[in-house]
Amino acid sequence: MDTDQGKNIVLPGDKPLAADFHRQSFFKVLLRDANFEQVRIPSGFLPQVQVAEEPFGVRTLTGPSGHKWNVKLSIEGNNIYIKDGWQRFYRENSLEEYDFLVFRQCGNFNFDVQIFDKRGVEKTNR
């Protein structure tokens, strides 16, 4: 049994990370409802994180409209997910199958999110 499952992640003291990390981005293509519950952050995107018993602090997703959604990150096995708050972001941005999302790190695991529809056109009116 994996002892890390369900625990939250903690960045080392929430210290500012290297400038290169702050500019990193990753993308997700939404397939069916597979990404409705949570979104996995690619393992290659992440610096070393530490597992802790204490809840991970609230992080922010900023959508195309500039509106902000609070989310929490959690670790399950070797994967880190955007979970609590993600469903609300999904619904309120009317995300659909084949939407293409770009998550741009803007510091301490807060993200600006660009949303493109299946035609490749950016969704900006949210």
UniProtKB/TrEMBL annotation:
An annotated Gene Ontology molecular function: DNA binding
Subcellular location: Nucleus
Family matches, as SMART domains: B3 (SM01019)
Residue ranges of domain TF-B3 in the record: 24-119
Membrane-crossing segments per the record: none
Keyword Nucleus applies: yes
Main localization, broad class: nucleus
Keywords per UniProt: DNA-binding, Nucleus, Transcription, Transcription regulation
InterPro entries: B3_DNA-bd (IPR003340), DNA-bd_pseudobarrel_sf (IPR015300), Plant_B3_domain (IPR050655)
Keyword Nucleus: yes
GO cellular component term of the entry, any: nucleus
PANTHER family noted in UniProt: B3 DOMAIN-CONTAINING, B3 DOMAIN-CONTAINING PROTEIN REM23
Name used for this protein in its record: B3 domain-containing protein
Gene source species: Forsythia ovata
